[in-house]
Specification:
Structural class: alpha+beta
CATH class: Alpha Beta
Radius of gyration: 14 Å
Largest sheet: 4 strands, antiparallel
Number of strands: 6
Strand content: 35-45%
Number of helices: 3
CATH topology: Alpha-Beta Plaits
Order of helices and strands: EEEHEEHHE
Distance between the termini: 6 Å
Shape: globular
């Protein structure tokens, strides 16, 4: 099992929208990938509730059967739309991918 964890910090404003508006749209787009991309085994999106200098704004916790399935997810056209939005609204991205039995 491959665990794919990503955390983002958003710009205060982008595309004429507030940080909160962009976060909500982004989170919804991620959640909508379930059922569209069959390789997703688990997908959970959370938004931060305690603001601090070290906090991220949105987190993705997802799981895939293999690195190949993760690659299919990453290159899927619907996921590419999420990446395109991220390039406009995200200030910083951190990710970790790790394997569990």
């Amino acid at each position: 099992m491959i665990n794919h964890i990503v955390m983002w910090r958003f710009k205060d404003t982008a595309r004429g929208k507030t940080k909160t508006e962009n976060m909500a749209e982004f989170a919804a787009m991620l959640e909508n990938l379930v059922g569209i991309i069959p390789q997703i085994r688990h997908l959970e999106v959370g938004t931060n509730v305690i603001d601090s200098d070290t906090a991220s704004d949105v987190v993705l916790n997802s799981r895939f059967d293999s690195l190949e399935d993760l690659d299919l997810y990453n290159t899927h056209p619907e996921h590419q739309k999420v990446i395109a939005l991220a390039k406009e609204v995200v200030a910083e991205r951190r990710a970790v991918d790790y394997e569990t039995p």
